Structures are given as C-alpha cells and as structure tokens.
Amino acid sequence: MKRQDFSGRQLLAELKDDRGAITAEYAVVIMAAVAFAGLLVAIMRSGEVRAMLVDLVQNALGTAG
Predict the structure, then answer these.
(1) Separation of first and last alpha carbons in the chain
(2) Which helix (H) or strand (E) holds 1?
(3) Spatial distance between the Cα atoms of 35 and 43, rounded to a whole number of angstroms
(4) Residues 46, 47, 53, 56: is their CA dihedral positive or negative?
C-alpha cells in the first residue's frame, strides 16, 4: 500500500474538508427530534395528563357555546 506524503498546505486542505459534516448534523437533529417525540408520547399516554387535557377541552367548549 502506497503512503501519501502531504505538504503542510495539502494537509491543511485535507483537514478543512468538511464533506459529510452537514449530514452528521442532520442525523443528530433527527435523533434528538425522535427522542423528544417519544418523550411527548410517553407523557400524553399518562392518565393524569389525558384527564387534564379532556377537562381543558370540555371547559373551552363549555365557555364558547
């Protein structure tokens, strides 16, 4: 296998190459969004939260009508 010898300028150019960085950032953001959505689903399945939301909707509909 041939080893490449880089000059200082070539090495800097290689280190500054950030291809794929945006894709990695998108992946991290998507993973965080999925985790947050999972947390919201877990909270919404809670009986107390569900009862609170039903009461809120019933009160809103009662006052509007």
Answers:
(1) 80
(2) none
(3) 12
(4) negative
Overall pTM surpassing 0.90 (yes/no): no
Distance CA 20, CA 23 (A): 5
For the segment 8-62, what is each residue's pLDDT rounded down to a tens digit? Answer: 777 777 677 667 667 888 999 999 999 999 999 998 888 998 899 889 999 999 8
The DSSP string of 10-64 is: HHHHHHH--TTHHHHHHHHHHHHHHHHHHHHHHHHTSHHHHHHHHHHHHHHHHHH
Cα 54 from chain centre: 29
Long-range contacts of 5-10 (CB under 8 A, 24+ apart): none
